[in-house]
Amino acid sequence: MDIAKAFTYMLEDERWVTKLGIGAVLTFFIWLLLPIPILVGYSLAVLRNVRDGYERPLPEWDDWGRLFMDGLFIMIAQFVYTLPLLLLLCVITGGMVASAGIAEMSEQLATASFLATFGLTACLFLLWYVAYIFISPAIMIQYGRTGELGSCFRFGEVIAIIRRNVGDILIVFVAVLVVSFAYGAFTSFLSIIPCLGPIIGMVVSLFLGPYVMMMTGHLYGQIAAKESGIGPEKWEKGPDVY
After folding, report:
1. Is 36 helix (H, G, I), strand (E, B) or coil?
2. Torsions phi, psi for 74 (to 5 deg)
3. Residue 125 lies in a domain
4. 118 lies in some domain
5. Residue 104 is assigned to a structural domain of this protein
6. Could you tell me if 94 and 160 are in contact, meaning their C-beta atoms sit under 8 angstroms apart?
7. Which residues 6+ apart lie within 8 Å of 153 measured at CB?
8. What is the 8-class DSSP label of residue 103?
9. Tens-place pLDDT, residues 80-130
């Protein structure tokens, strides 16, 4: 994978400032607790861009209906895959309530019951969360290939994508972690600047969201290109081949 290109390719687009700015505006509305799936849809558009080799590095913000529906379907699929996590949270809550009832009879028994329930569910939660790190990008790649919500639940195909690309998906996860740590260090530095520091941090975070979305879209697009049998020579050479 060309990791470095995923961090910088968007600058090769002559309208990158405008396109990134639109993403920042949408991020602001998401901060207002508006569940806007368009950003997810745009990330998928970037994936398809890289996979198929379009003319411009960044797709246009033009087909808003398609961006919305693509993002909505991906979010629905991701939500369905998180249902086991939500079920585990319900088990933890139920265990805590049961422990409170047992505590009236025996505090030691209540403690043992709570630790057993919490320990088991915490381990299962962690295992499923690790699995979801690989499932989420596989869902995007699968949906990007078919454009059908139902295909995201063809578990054999989703698992096959993960199995063939475990290393690459892990690289994407690490790349996002690196950006997150760098942003955390930057905001820590800004915190020593009174008044102006928090404002700068807020503005940067508005643009960081769509930037990370574009970066991960490119990396997922590289994986999708491999899945489609397209070699790295197509997306390594720069904007001429888009």
Report:
1. coil
2. -65, -40
3. no
4. no
5. no
6. no
7. 77, 80
8. T
9. 998 887 777 776 666 666 555 555 555 665 566 666 666 667 777 788 888
